[in-house]
Amino acid sequence: MTVHKKFEEVTVKTESIYKGRIISLQVDTVTLPNGETATREIVKHPGAVAVIPLIGDKMIVVEQYRKPLEKSQVEIPAGKLDAGEEPLKAALRELEEETGYRSDNVKLVSSFYTSPGFADEIIHLYIAEDLVKGNANPDEDEFLECEAITLEEAQQYMRDGRISDAKTIMAVYAWQLYKLTGQI
Amino acid sequence: MTVHKKFEEVTVKTESIYKGRIISLQVDTVTLPNGETATREIVKHPGAVAVIPLIGDKMIVVEQYRKPLEKSQVEIPAGKLDAGEEPLKAALRELEEETGYRSDNVKLVSSFYTSPGFADEIIHLYIAEDLVKGNANPDEDEFLECEAITLEEAQQYMRDGRISDAKTIMAVYAWQLYKLTGQI
């Protein structure tokens, strides 16, 4: 895949501000295409996976509390990549940990950056079909509740604001397109 | 709109780590539903708008360098909310600044959180039709190039990785659904 560098901003200096448990923050000083200098605040993230788990005409979602939003949200199963972990393996791990289901029929939908203006977080989004029962096993500090919803219920959740994060809205659109066109 | 608080995490302490030009970072100590304590790394962001600008059978996109990714990306026009700015007004401002087009036919597609695990950033996504020529006027440190692309070209850009951010992939899906169903 060609990496495009149009209007490249060249790093003059990198200042590390914070290294946390999950994210870190740095401020880069850059040279702009016109020769001027600017600063860029950059959050580094290990990357994540998310899964659209389809069972019959329903999708499995999980409700959990999202501290940055100060409310609970209904989302597709997702989680961070462990160090060196292959995304597909992480997706299958998170699917089973959070929902108790396994699948041998998993396809990549897309890999996307959530906030390219200030963060390098990438999410690898998969679709999983032909689910079979495994063992749910959420992380220790993870409290969540699973539910299987129809497309119409998902769209209602979007109108109600119970589904309102990028990856889950993208999942609902992809699911609707899959139903309409037969294509991922 | 009801705010759901299932599995609420109650703040015990907030430590401010950094206040920047665009984002700030804080670490909250919280009490979990089981009584245990955990920390949450939280990026605060002013919020943003993005626009799907349709002209005939094409969508207008902008290419710009994304420092966190160290590459340029093709995205729909977007930008941060100014302090106190109403999202629809911001969307019309960014549309004209970045593409040179105005519109009186603008509808909200959805408002979504980009990274609810570590950031409060919200993007208000609009669709704009019946575009008329105004005046392009990018910000001083903003270097970008506009292009009008068909749905098929957008899908090819996604396969090539030139389009790979959440809001633009969501825009392409929403546009495809709009063409298929006539509904936003």
UniProtKB/TrEMBL annotation, chains A, B:
It comes from the Bacteria. CDD domains: NUDIX_ADPRase_Nudt5_UGPPase_Nudt14 (cd03424). One of its GO terms (biological process) is ribose phosphate metabolic process. The keyword Hydrolase applies. Pfam families: NUDIX (PF00293). One of its GO terms (cellular component) is cytosol. Residues 44-178 form the Nudix hydrolase domain. The keyword Hydrolase applies. Its cofactor is Mg(2+). It comes from Paenibacillus silvestris. One of its GO terms (molecular function) is hydrolase activity. InterPro entries: NUDIX_hydrolase-like_dom_sf, NUDIX_hydrolase_CS, NUDIX_hydrolase_dom. Keywords: Hydrolase. This is NUDIX domain-containing protein. SUPFAM superfamilies: Nudix. PROSITE patterns: NUDIX (PS51462), NUDIX_BOX (PS00893).
